[in-house]
Structures are given as structure tokens and as C-alpha cells.
Amino acid sequence: MPNENETPTQGAPAEQERTFTQTELDAIVRDRLKREREKYADYADLQTKAKAYDEAQEAAKSELQKAVERAERAEAELTAMRQERERSELVARLAAEKGVSAEMLARMSGDVAENAAWLAEQDAAKPKYPSVADTGEVSSPNTGNQTEFIKSLFGSDH
Q: What mean pLDDT, rounded, does the chain reach?
């Protein structure tokens, strides 16, 4: 039976603890610091590269944002041009249908169909008097066509 006072290491050969001198300890610490510094020797270079990469990303983002803004402006201009063309086509069609001046209808704001109807009503409501041109010729009363009425007042197209 083992002795209770005996520790498990008593039977084994005792390992001696090594002691270091201050010079040895300084050398160990210096070596360890050197290895650690070597690990991070390129840290400044990596930091510079990372900063350059971030700046390039920002510049690229700015270029992308500029391109997006240009595309949005172009799309808005295209939409405005399409709306203007559609309105011009509607003005020409309704002016021909109602017999009113396309120029006058184009200058009016608001709904084109309502304006064309209003101009036609105004044209129909005006009195039908004969007009006298500068040459002394008397023309027949207005027949409801506003363009012809204007021509009859001034005697020409302009």
C-alpha cells in the first residue's frame, strides 16, 4: 500500500527548474519582439493599400452616382419631349376636328380637349357680321371657322 505522505512525483526523478540570467532573459524577450514585429512588418504598406482601395471605391461610387444622375436627367428629358410631342399631336388633331386655331389652342394651358371645345363654342357664339377688307371687298358673314374669320379680318395669312 502506498504511503499516504508520499506524493505521486516522489518516485520519479525530479526535474530541475532552470533559472535564467538577466542577459538570457533580455535575449529571449528581444527575439520574441523581433518575431512579433516581423509578423506586422508590412502593416504600414497594407494600411496604405487599404486606404488607396477605399479611395478608389469612393471615386468609383461617385462616378456611378454621376452616371445614374445623367441617366435620370436623360430619362426625364425624354419623358418631357414625349409629352410635348403627344400634346402637339393632340392639339393639331383637335384643332382640325373643331375648326379652331391650332396656334391659339397650343398656347392655352389646361386640358386640350376642353380648351378646343371652349374655343369652338366661342367661335359659334360670336356674331356673324360681314367684314370689309382694306381693298373695300365685303366678305360673307363668319361661317364658324375661327381661322378663316381671322383671315377675313386682316385680309391675309399673317
A: 81
